Amino acid sequence: MTTDRMLKFVDTAKRSPTKRSADERATDFGEIYAEFDAAGAGEQAGRCSQCGVPFCQVHCPLHNNIPDWLMLTAEGRLEEAYEVASATNNFPEICGRICPQDRLCEGNCVIEKGFESVTIGSVEKYITEKAFENGWVKPVVPPRERTESVGIIGGGPAGLAAGEQLRKRGYQVHVYDRYDRMGGLLIYGIPNFKLEKDVVERRSALLADGGVNYHPNTEVGVTVSMEELRARHDAVLIATGVYKARDIQCPGVGLDGIYPALDYLTASNRKGLGDAVPAFDDGTLNAAGKRVLVIGGGDTAMDCVRTAVRQGATSVTCLYRRDRANMPGSQREVANAEDEGVVFQWLSAPEAFMGDRRVTGVRSHRIRLGVADATGRQTPQPIEDSSFVIDCDMAITALGFDPEDLPSAFGTAELKVSRWGTIGIDFRSMMTSLDGVFAAGDIVRGASLVVWAVRDGRDAADRIHDHLTAKAAGASRDAA
Ligand code: FAD
Ligand code: SF4
Ligand code: SF4
């Protein structure tokens, strides 16, 4: 029932948590948004109109029960708010920070038109941070232990969400990751100023406390074979993400000083975690004192330009072939980049990298957007005689990611993939073409979002449970 603390959107203006000034935040890697205080969170949650058909919830990939946890927050009943928020989301404090809310829950909030949306993501983060502070976030304690075990390949959000859900049902869970830390792109892709690493490490430690077994530095297909994993476990989940950087085809692409986005971001994140990173320390993957050009317009490109600003680049330019309205990245992150001093060259595409041994600039041309293609997006067309040169000392390519060739890497030619290389699954059972092997996250969808990886991981855990339950029932029938 709606209380008198709700429906305040007419009198109470939208207020987000304080954002640090562009000058201040450009000098460090700390998160840029502060947290709500109790009064701010309650006041902002109370703006919700408690819609009968909450479009925020419909457009949240996890279908979070947003109106209920907003009402509980407005009433100061935070522990209950946390229970509701965490019932559908394994990592609410992470999604609250890094979901592109403008495209998901908040972008579909009905009061958006005329009154500006409820600050859903910031309240979700607030509730969960309070829950951690008050000790309400507890490791999983399964009601009973099962003997069946599940092997999960990949400790990113899809693998970890699946792992936690399976532990809740009492399965023995083993997560194998080729990296030394769990978290996938939450640790080595997304920079600290969006998501501080102790937030991710706090979660992975909690899962370990709940009995999830980690096997870091274990690359499936190299350290251990897929065949071995299938023999070791009753079911296997592939949640390996997509990592093959899309190439750029133009002259000069082999010059020194041109790097793929993820190499650059991983070096920066490792440095922030205190690791020894020779390629950063010797200046190779460090933008300090350099004129940096980033090619691409997605979230990865935005993370690169903003990392370069913080490393002390003398100038940072982003080259993108479409216009601002057609950028795939979150508009919020584009605005943050502009505030931090990044210069955007819209409607521009690279033609050639210049330089003898090392890149000194990128010759580019202007683009006009033509008729829409089959996907509905306008096709970029080069404008004749529009070449211009942008000088740079470092160029970063952020053109998206494709899946690695998993059937070859795993030595399982029978593993069916789509024509894009993503793993094919039966959409009802989430099983791949290999019996007892499931798949979830970016490796199925292609490069996507953390919240979708969590959703897929949760769904896969349910489907694995159905499969193992049916298998156990079949075995007991056979024995009878
Ligand atoms: P991943 O997070 O990629 O995890 C896969 C894991 O599998 C990795 O740890 C990898 O080491 C491991 N692995 C791969 N192959 C093997 C193998 N053979 N053996 C063992 N382990 C293996 N999304 C958002 O919602 N908001 C954002 O702001 C955002 N920013 C992003 C910024 C960048 C730079 C990038 C690259 C992505 C961003 N995304 C963002 C997308 C988001 O990070 C991904 O959609 C999400 O992490 C996918 O989760 P996943 O679990 O499927 O894969
Ligand atoms: Fe919004 Fe993401 Fe939270 Fe869903 S998980 S409510 S989309 S911030
Ligand atoms: Fe509240 Fe907006 Fe969701 Fe409606 S759409 S329930 S106003 S948050």
Which helices and strands, and how do they pair?
Blueprint: H1 22-25, H2 38-45, H3 55-58, H4 66-74, H5 78-88, H6 92-98, H7 112-115, H8 120-133, E1 149-153, H9 157-168, E2 172-176, H10 185-188, H11 197-209, E3 213-215, H12 226-232, E4 235-238, E5 244-245, E6 258-260, H13 261-272, H14 278-281, E7 291-295, H15 299-311, E8 315-319, H16 331-339, E9 343-345, E10 348-354, E11 361-372, E12 378-382, E13 388-391, E14 394-397, E15 401-402, H17 406-410, E16 437-439, H18 442-445, H19 450-479
Parallel strand pairs: 1-2, 1-4, 2-3, 4-16, 6-14, 7-8, 7-14, 8-9
Antiparallel strand pairs: 5-15, 10-11, 11-12, 11-13
Helix pairs in contact: 2-4, 4-5, 4-8, 5-8, 6-8, 9-19, 13-15, 15-16
The chain binds flavin-adenine dinucleotide and iron/sulfur cluster (2 copies).
One iron/sulfur cluster binds at residues 48-51, 54-56, 66-67, 109-111, 118, 120.
Largest sheet: 5 strands, parallel
Report strand order across the widest sheet: 3-2-1-4-16
Distance between the termini: 52 Å
Regions with pLDDT < 50 over 5+ consecutive residues? none
Q: What would you call the shape? A: globular
**Could you give me the name of the CATH homologous superfamily of the largest domain?**
FAD/NAD(P)-binding domain
Q: Compute the average pLDDT.
A: 95
Strand content: 15-25%
